[in-house]
Amino acid sequence: MKEVLNIAVCQCGVVWEAPQENLARLQAFIGGYLEQCGDNDRPDLIVLPEFFATGFTSNTRLAEAEDGPTLRWMQVLASFSGAAVTGSVPTAAGGKVLNRMYFAAPDGRTEFYDKRHLFRMSGENEVFASGSIRKTVEYLGWRIGLNVCYDLRFPVWSRRTSSNDYDLLLNVASWPSSRMAAASILAHARAVENQCWMVFCNRVGESPENSYTGGSLIIDYKGRQTGDFHPDNETGPGGGILHAALDLDGLRRFREKFPAWMDADTFLLT
Question: What is the pLDDT of residues 51-105, one digit of tens each?
């Protein structure tokens, strides 16, 4: 159990469809940050963007097996750093191609969530299969909900309920700069309505069709932004790591003092 969870949100650039190069650059990017950390601010959780190894591509040739090299890289990083590592990877499983968000813990445990809402405006829904199961992982006494990019726009899917309870909601994204005003509003709304910590991890740089300017966020259960940004252009301009210490006791006390969750509407997902 950790009452305070140190989190490192990696706002990195991504070279288009170049997984080996991206993983090598991320290794240097994260390794440099870890070398600067003291004992009190060393991360417990490292968050990477959606498709951090490839860019937001629909090229199915880049889809990896469930034990593919990007997941293995995440597992090695988790073991080396002593922190859980999470981010999404194009994955081929069960005869489908999925936008799969992995959560690799330093003890070797790995869990995953398959993105539910596929971005039809780019044709993601024509290539990838949609997930159907919400996912919460238990880590260091925290309940952590997993969420990918476009999922952020759908509050019913993300709603904190007795069957989908969490303290922290993670959204890993490839969210273009042209729609960042919406991303900020949506992330703040998810934090407030669910009375939870909210993390939005976005990339920087260019892809063939979009520009990305980061805008990663750590938001508390009252809708207040927090965190210290450490600039690092190792993976591209605008890159860096957003760090914050998340307090579980403060969250519990706020939910007890202001129990809006007790008046939430019930619903059935279909």
Answer: 999 999 999 999 999 999 999 999 999 999 999 999 999 999 999 999 999 999 9
Task: Report d(CA 226, CA 220) in Å as an integer.
Answer: 7
Question: What are the extents of the domains in the chain?
Answer: 4-260
Is residue 201 part of the annotated active site? The answer reads: no
The CB-side HSE value for 89 (13 A sphere, CA atoms) comes to 28
The answer to whether the beta carbons of residues 8 and 83 sit under 8 Å apart is yes
Alpha helices in the chain (DSSP H): 19-36, 69-81, 124-127, 155-158, 180-194, 248-257
Residues 4-260, CATH architecture: 4-Layer Sandwich (3.60)
Strand partners, 264: none
Tell me the mean pLDDT in the region 172-186.
Answer: 98
Q: What is the mean pLDDT of residues 183-188?
A: 98
Q: Name the active-site residue from 50, 64, 111, 124.
A: 50
Helix (H, G, I), strand (E, B) or coil at 122: helix
- Is 115 tagged catalytic? yes
Which one of 115, 124, 196, 201 is the catalytic residue? 115
pTM: 0.98
Q: Catalytic annotation on 50?
A: yes
Spot the catalytic one: 10, 12, 149, 201.
149
| Token pair for 254 | 């706020």
- Over its C-alpha atoms, the chain yields an Rg (Å, rounded) of 17
Plot region of 223 (φ>0 → left; ψ -120 to 50 → alpha; else → beta): left
d(C-alpha 198, C-alpha 177), whole Å: 20
Separation of alpha carbons 103 and 110, rounded Å: 6
